[in-house]
Design a protein that fits this description.
alpha+beta, Endonuclease I-creI, four-stranded antiparallel β-sheet, 20% strand
Length: 143
């Protein structure tokens, strides 16, 4: 598979099965980018992990007769690189906006070990809130 074909496939898969969010790091006001994709078939998630890294975990539903599911997770800089790779191939407007904000969030992160300024904390807080609103069920796409 060519690099372009792989990125287009990953974007289509992520458009349907993916999640983009910003998580609090638990050490104060710091935040990090997180991408996830879930499926009852592990193979597509293995492809994502092989090319972009991350980890895969299993999840069992409590629903009777539910198939076991798998979840691929990638965070921080690696998540940002994944989103940059697939962004040109995304189709759904909500995901296009969510990914654009996530890339903006990650692009402005200071280097590890650097102090995050108050201005940067404000920017991250705002982008976090924008992504959270886009993730809400039934959320309208802002213009």
């Amino acid at each position: 598979m060519t690099k372009v074909a792989l990125r287009a496939w990953a974007a289509g898969f992520f458009d349907g099965e993916g999640y983009v969010g910003v998580r609090l790091n638990g050490h104060g006001r710091g935040r990090y980018l997180e991408c996830k994709a879930s499926n009852t078939e592990r193979e597509p998630l293995d492809v994502l992990r092989q090319h972009w890294g991350g980890s895969i975990s299993s999840h069992r539903s409590s629903a009777v007769g539910a198939k076991p599911a798998w979840q691929w997770t990638i965070t921080s800089r690696a998540a940002g690189l994944f989103l940059v790779a697939i962004e040109p191939y995304l189709v759904t407007p909500k995901n296009q906006q969510r990914v654009a904000r996530a890339i903006e969030f990650q692009a402005g992160k200071p280097r590890p070990g650097s102090r995050t300024t108050e201005d940067r904390i404000d920017i991250e807080t705002d982008l976090h809130e924008q992504i959270r609103k886009l993730n809400a069920r039934g959320a309208l796409i802002p213009s």
